[in-house]
């Protein structure tokens, strides 16, 4: 499973970073930056939570 981001949608709200700082960060413009592109185990669950709470629907998970 891979995390994909849509920078055109990201509004820099930072909910993903606040929820899962081990997986997400923000760049100098406040846009999401993925630290762990292919999360495993507990991180996979955390990534699913972040996708769910993103207010801009800028995150998605792709099964590989
Ligand atoms: S991906 Fe979503 S939650 Fe994360 S910074 Fe962008 S808008 Fe906010």
What brief labels describe this structure?
64 residues; alpha+beta; Alpha-Beta Plaits; two-stranded antiparallel sheet; two-stranded antiparallel ribbon; 2 helices; 4 strands; 22% strand; globular; binds iron/sulfur cluster
Order of SSEs, N→C? EHEEHE
Determine the N-to-C terminus distance: 5 Å
Radius of gyration over C-alpha positions, nearest whole angstrom: 10 Å
Return the CATH topology: Alpha-Beta Plaits
The number of distinct helices, counting runs of at least 4 residues, comes to 2
Give the total of beta strands: 4
The backbone outline, from C-alpha atoms, is: globular
Strand content: 15-25%
Residues in helices, as a percent range: 25-40%
CATH level-1 class: Alpha Beta
Overall number of structural domains: 1
Order of strands across the biggest sheet? Answer: 1-4
List low-pLDDT spans: none
What compounds sit in this structure?
iron/sulfur cluster
Describe what is shown at a glance.
With 64 residues, the protein is an alpha+beta fold.
